[in-house]
Amino acid sequence: MLAQAAIGPADATMAAGGSAAVSTGAAAASERLRRADEQPRRGGKKAVLLSLLLPGAGEMSLGARGRATGFFIAEGAIWTHFVWFQVAGHLRKDNYIEQAQLHAGVGVSSADDTYWKLLGQYQTSQGTGPTAYEEALRREARDNFPSDPAAQDAYVAERLPSGDRAWSWSSADAQTSYRATRESSRRAFDRSKYSIAAAIANRLLSAIDTQIVRGRSGERHSAREVPGIPLLLLADTAPDGSGRLYLTRSF
Question: What CA–CA distance (Å, rounded) separates 139 from 149?
C-alpha cells in the first residue's frame, strides 16, 4: 500500500535536496544488502568444513541446533559401535590365543594372522599325513622343485614352524573350539570397520545438510524487508514544462 504527498513547484528545490538524501539512503541500504548476501556464503563454507570435521558442528554454526543434535547423536552411536566391536575382537583374539597355548602347545602370543589361521587348518605342524602342515609344505616343494630334493628340503625348512611356534592339538574338539573363537573375533573386527564407512557417510550428509540449512536461511533473509528506504521521490512533468514531485512511503 502506498501513501503519496504532492509537492508543488515551489517546493521543488527542497525536494531536490531531499532526493539526494534518499539516493544516499538507497545506496547505504544496497550495501547492507550486499554484505548480508555475502555473509551466508562465507558461513556456508565454514559450516561445510566444520561438518567434515564433526558432523553437526556446521549446523550448530548456522543456528540449526535441532538438526545438529541429530548428527551429534549419530556420530556418538557410530563410534560407540566401533569401540564395542574393536574391544570384542581383541578379547576374543586373546581367548583363541590362550586356547592355542593350552591345547596345542603354542609358546608364542604374538604372530601374524597367517600363523593363527594355520593352527585352525592343521592338527599338527610337523609329521606326515593330511592333518600335518609339514606334509602340505612338502607337496608345495615337490611342485616347485620336482627334480631337486635339496631345494625341496630347504623350502620346507624355511617355512615350517619350529620351537615355540610348533603345535599339536590335544583333540579335534579343542581345535574346533579354537576355530569358532577365531572366526568370532574376525567377524567382530569386520563389523567395527563398518563404523568407518558410516562415519564418512555421516560427514558427507552433514555437509550437504548445511547447504540446505544455509539455502533456507538465505530465502528467509531475502523475504525480510530491508530498512533504510522509508521514502521514495517521484517526479511528474507536464507538457508545458511544469512538474510536481511526489514523496511515497511503502508500508
Answer: 12
Residue 185: partners with Cβ closer than 8 Å, 6 or more residues away: 88, 89, 90, 92, 93, 95, 96
The pLDDT tens digits for 180-191 are 999 999 999 999
Give the type of residue at 183.
Answer: E
Q: What is the DSSP string of 72-91?
A: HHHHHHHHHHHHHHHHHHHH
Residue 82 identity? F
Query: What amino acid occupies position 21?
Result: A
Q: pTM for the complete prediction?
A: 0.65
Return the bridge partners of 247, or none.
5, 233
Report CA Rg, the chain.
40
Beta strand residue intervals within the chain, DSSP E: 2-7, 232-237, 243-250
CB 231 within 8 A of CB 22: yes
Q: Which helix (DSSP H) or strand (DSSP E) does residue 28 occupy?
A: helix 12-53
Cell numbers for 187, please give them.
Answer: 567377524
